[in-house]
Structure formats: C-alpha cells, structure tokens
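Hi R.,

Quick one: here's the HTH tetR-type domain-containing protein sequence you asked about.
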Amino acid sequence: MFREKGFEAATTREIADRADIAIATLFVYAKDKRDLLFLLINDELDTLLQKQFDVQPKDGSLLGQILHIFACQYEYFASDAVLFRAALHESFHFDSDTGKDGPQVKRWRERHERGMGYLEKIIEANQASGGIRPEVNPATAAWLLVSIYRAQTLRWLSGKTPTAKKGISQLREVMELLVNGLEK
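And here's the predicted structure, written out as tokens:
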C-alpha cells in the first residue's frame, strides 16, 4: 500500500484490509502507521548492518571502508526506493524523547546507534594505524560521516529513478572531499 499510494496517502485501514486482517490485529504488531513502515524493513536492515561490518572491503583505506558500509545500504535502498524514501523521511521525526515512538521505530534508532558505534571503532582503528589525526574525536567523526551520508542519501532518493551505481558515485565524491579535506 505504501508503494502504491505513498506513505502519507496510505491508511492503516487500507493496509489491514489488503492484508485481510482486523485493524486491531495490525496494531498488535505496530503502534501506528510510522511504526508499521519500520516493521516492514527492520529485519532486513538488521541483517544488512551486520553484513556491512562483518565483511571487510578489499580496499582497507578509510574511504574504502566508509564506501563499503554505505554502498551496502545504497544497493538495498535502490531495490525499493519508494519505501526507503518514506522510511528515511520518517526517521527524521524526533519523537524518541517524548516516548511516542513505537517499538519498530525504537529498533530503527537502536540500529542507528549501533552503526554509529561501529563507525567510531573504524575511526579509532584508523587513528591507531596513523591514518587519522589523534586529536579527532571518533564520535564526532562518526556523526559527521552519518550526517553527510543521510543528506546525500536523501538527495539521491529524491531523484526519479535512483540507481545504486549513481548514488554510490555521488556519495564517493562527497566522502572523498571529507576524507581528503578542502586544504591544498
């Protein structure tokens, strides 16, 4: 239903009818429509996150590691750009401090935090090997990487027909700029 009508236009009643279940049954699994959206993708994204960090890229450079991690997501997101466009948009809502988030949205946020932790470890490992200046705060660097990734992903998914190849190419360009810096 989200794919056909879009996230905003789809109703939980229509979703329950399409699934041939009572609407009350739908709410056993998801707190609201937003939570239902994340329910659709959380299991696969949990598996993807593990894959991103378990399989090390052949290019052991910082840029190679970063692109490996985020390219896995681009390839997955390209498989259903409409759904992931909605999920990314909904992930920017800030209800986590109000207690209004459903369990599936909480899972999304927890996975995001685990991903940030993995990125911090990559930064720390690169610091230990001399690839990153020792004064760089790993948490701040991870936050910056994810911020750029999210902005670039939103830009990429906003296109008419986002392909993984094009998205990864655009991401590489901005990540190269970050990793290599602006200085001459």
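The longest helix spans residues 103-128.

Cheers,
M.
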